[in-house]
């Protein structure tokens, strides 16, 4: 017998009576009589009580059932049905199992039966724009634990909501977020609001679990109501990503133009840019061996030999934080290579930056903020 209730046609609701699954009068006696009496008793059981019997049987057998994924009303109905039952004899149990197996044999496909379930089923198959529109129109929240979804959002999306919500709600949100994410969000909040939320966190221990769940559902609905943007990253990140791989002359020219048009935006782009010259300030010394392992030595030699001006600090940072033997070998090859063409040097330094970005994306290294010591 299957240990999953997911194939049940329509779920628990189909196992209730037409009037909502009211219990049979008198419930079950402590002991059933002969086989005929058992069949009569089986016929008197409501469908919800039969589900309760099946769930009890599966739990006894060690099955882990996804009951927590059921709607609250279905979980309540199941619990109430279990509370109405006492002892069930072997004949009645066999009859319930046989009926359940017959139900399963007749099922070819199951559908969720509601918009929320349909959206969950099609998650990842339909476009985010369509999914967001359907959720808004149907008033459906995103599927799953809302706090898991909220914890996965970046600080930029969390910040506006926390700025608008009460201090008490903000304290609950920060308490539910991973420590690192909570610290990041707290650091971006205005000072007075951050202090008040931090103080309010001392009182979150008295908040009921139901209240925390309602806050999560409400906030998740707010995020669902936000329009889906065409781009996954913001304009600062997109511009910085393009300039990261642009020739230095182009990059400098674009930044100069941005400063004239919008100095504040230009400053944000500068902070987001990561080029070879930023290695000395943004890459920790302990991570140097990780990046050099993934770069072809000829490419690394070309990049180091081409480093001049602001990039010289990054060249020295790389050479000073690897084994002396390897550093000496690279310096010898750099001397033999001599002057490097500007185009070749740019390409080699871009390859080094690309390797650093790859390792960062995979979580192998963490780039320091401009204010931290490398």
UniProtKB/TrEMBL annotation:
One MF annotation (Gene Ontology) recorded for this entry: cytoskeletal motor activity
Xref: InterPro entries: Flg_Motor_Flig (IPR000090), Flg_Motor_Flig_C (IPR023087), FliG_a-hlx (IPR011002), FliG_M (IPR032779), FliG_N (IPR028263)
Keywords: Bacterial flagellum, Cell membrane, Cell projection, Chemotaxis, Cilium, Flagellar rotation, Flagellum, Membrane
Biological process (GO), any one: chemotaxis
Chain intervals with Gly residues compositional bias: 10-24
Membrane topology: Peripheral membrane protein
Reported function: FliG is one of three proteins (FliG, FliN, FliM) that forms the rotor-mounted switch complex (C ring), located at the base of the basal body. This complex interacts with the CheY and CheZ chemotaxis proteins, in addition to contacting components of the motor that determine the direction of flagellar rotation.
PANTHER family linked: FLAGELLAR MOTOR SWITCH PROTEIN FLIG (PTHR30534:SF0)
Protein name: Flagellar motor switch protein FliG
Organism: Vannielia litorea
Phylogenetic lineage: Bacteria, Pseudomonadati, Pseudomonadota, Alphaproteobacteria, Rhodobacterales
